[in-house]
Amino acid sequence: MQFQSKLPSIGTTVFTVMSALATKTKAINLGQGFPDFPMNESLIELVNKAMQDGYNQYPPMEGWVPLREAIAEKIEDLYQRAVHPKTEITVTPGGTYAIYTALSTLLHAGDEAIVFEPAYDSYIPGIKVNGGVPVVIPLEYPSYRIDWKKVRAAITEKTKLIMLNTPHNPSGAVLSHDDIAELRNLVRDTNIFIVSDEVYEHIILDSLPHLSMLRYPDLFERSFVCFSLGKVYNCTGWKMGYCVAPEWMMKEYRKIHQFNAFSCNTPVQVAMASFLREKSQYLSLPDFMQKKRDYFQELMSQTRFQPLETHGSYFQIYSYKEINQDPDFEFAKQLVAIHGVAAIPVSAFYQSGKDDKVLRFCFAKKKETLEAAVTKLVKV
Ligand code: GLN
To answer: Which residues pair with residue 307 across a beta bridge?
Structure first.
């Protein structure tokens, strides 16, 4: 028996591949993006308490209401947008699911989706599985900025959506006020929707503002905006996120969500509902992560790797052009096998496999982990 693959050219995600290699070789894992420092104890206690208090059955399909209310308050505080917790927010099992569901909601066979490369590796498969056609626009190297002329030139009658990501994975680039102005001009009087991946909303460095789609009424009216609670509370394995969209769009989104995950982990939602009100937890994140990025970059200055700018996310990209000219996948494999450090080859974020000889390192790690990794990297 056989059936036709829906994703014939896709293998296993690079994050899984590199993490498996790191585990096998006992390497230090600066590849897959997850913190290795402990998460907040009181949030763990709140989840335990919720379980003991009997919050163990299905929550509402759209999400635990007090959690959605807390999210709405946060959005109003941070982005000055009043969203309705009952109709405009859906809690999802993680950010990737939130994005996938948005793509699934919007795309019909043959619809074009504009996506910038390097692209987080779930976007293009998510577009294709849902019958869409990815229209890929390269970001400028090494700034990873959007060339809006190229975007304008790529728009056709079939353009259904633009996929955005700020702060950007893997480059750490963030959208500027000029980018937002270009975007607003571009979509005005069109039927183009936006799927915005904002999972690193708080991991934004150098005192830059996070320019969420939620801030702009003309952009929000056409957007699915996707967030991750795992990134905010250092518990990526809890797989908890949410999507925000105007009511009529969210109605369609829920039609799909209800037959997929249906709902998310109840005790985690109950705990998050109260924890989200402790604003200092997320307001302190930019500073906390900035210290990590600065420390990592300072340590890395002892190596032959050359840093590229990063303004957000868990990541910083380094060029290894000074070290050798091997393809980045090859070089990343050598780095794990010979030197004991895992990183992500950035060509994995390009359909074409474009290779600028750069690797992505995750700096959301304990001081000791960063130090131990760099002790190895100085020998490269
Ligand atoms: N978002 C994480 C990263 O970029 C990976 C999550 C995953 O492995 N799917 O490393």
So the answer is: 318
